[in-house]
């Protein structure tokens, strides 16, 4: 007996229209079309805002969002992106729609809803992973790590491992001068901000105008040069 997800290859939509699942396909995952459309619209805004923040200007003594008079981030600044709590793959979809030349690894945490089949059916790469374990990748693989709601998800599981354990693994996977973007509750972001000092990341907490209960933590891993002896 075939799975309800099984579709003959000749009947599958071609890329990129394949990423836009229809109502009947979404029903297999208990989702409505409105939910996916809302997620997609939200990430369109997020990608536009995030991209403009990836500048050392935000770490200055007088931080500001880069303006039109400031140099734009290099087009190829990010190549490999890790989304630690991918949900429906919305970040991946928005980056592709914005024509960003990136490759995204979508990770579905074992502690959250199991949407990995949905991500795969949209034509994206993805894996299921327990973030209290080491991620199977080489060190310094990724240019950016994104985590929305991951800290809340892990805290709801009574912190099977510490926040520092998770951040240490992020540090291992991230290349020097790579970026970390974490969005979560204000309380958890405050705790995360303290840990960034131990890892020597540059960090800045940014308020979210549309949500007073959440904060954005933007970090950059420094490039340490060997001091002459």
TrEMBL record:
SUPFAM superfamilies: S-adenosyl-L-methionine-dependent methyltransferases (SSF53335). It comes from the Eukaryota. Keywords: Glycoprotein, Methyltransferase, Signal-anchor, Transferase, Transmembrane. InterPro entries: Put_SAM_MeTrfase, SAM-dependent_MTases_sf. Its EC number is 2.1.1.-. It is found in: Endomembrane system; Membrane. This is Methyltransferase. It is a single-pass membrane protein; Single-pass type II membrane protein. GO terms for molecular function: methyltransferase activity. GO terms for cellular component: cytoplasm; endomembrane system; membrane. Belongs to the methyltransferase superfamily. The keyword Glycoprotein applies. It holds the Pfam family Methyltransf_29. The keyword rRNA-binding does not apply. Transmembrane segments: none annotated. Its main location: membrane. GO terms for biological process: methylation.
């Amino acid at each position: 007996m075939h799975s309800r997800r099984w579709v003959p290859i000749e009947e599958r939509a071609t890329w990129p229209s394949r990423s836009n699942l229809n109502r009947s396909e979404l029903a297999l995952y208990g989702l409505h079309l409105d939910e996916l459309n809302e997620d997609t619209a939200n990430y369109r805004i997020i990608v536009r805002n995030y991209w403009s923040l990836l500048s050392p200007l935000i770490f200055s003594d007088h931080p500001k969002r880069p303006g039109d008079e400031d140099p734009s981030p290099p087009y190829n600044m990010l190549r490999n992106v890790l989304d630690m709590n991918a949900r429906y793959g919305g970040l991946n979809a928005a980056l592709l729609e914005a024509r960003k030349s990136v490759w995204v690894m979508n990770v579905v945490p074992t502690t959250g809803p199991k949407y990995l089949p949905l991500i795969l059916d949209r034509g994206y790469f993805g894996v299921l992973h327990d973030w209290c374990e080491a991620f199977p990748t080489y060190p310094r693989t990724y240019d950016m790590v994104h985590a929305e709601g991951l800290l809340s998800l892990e805290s709801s599981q009574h912190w099977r491992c510490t926040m520092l354990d998770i951040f240490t693994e992020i540090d291992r996977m991230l290349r020097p001068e790579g970026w970390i973007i974490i969005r979560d509750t204000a309380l958890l972001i405050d705790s995360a901000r303290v840990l960034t000092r131990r890892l020597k990341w540059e960090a800045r907490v940014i308020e979210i105008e549309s949500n007073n209960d959440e904060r954005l933590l933007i970090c950059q891993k420094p490039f340490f040069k060997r001091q002459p002896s």
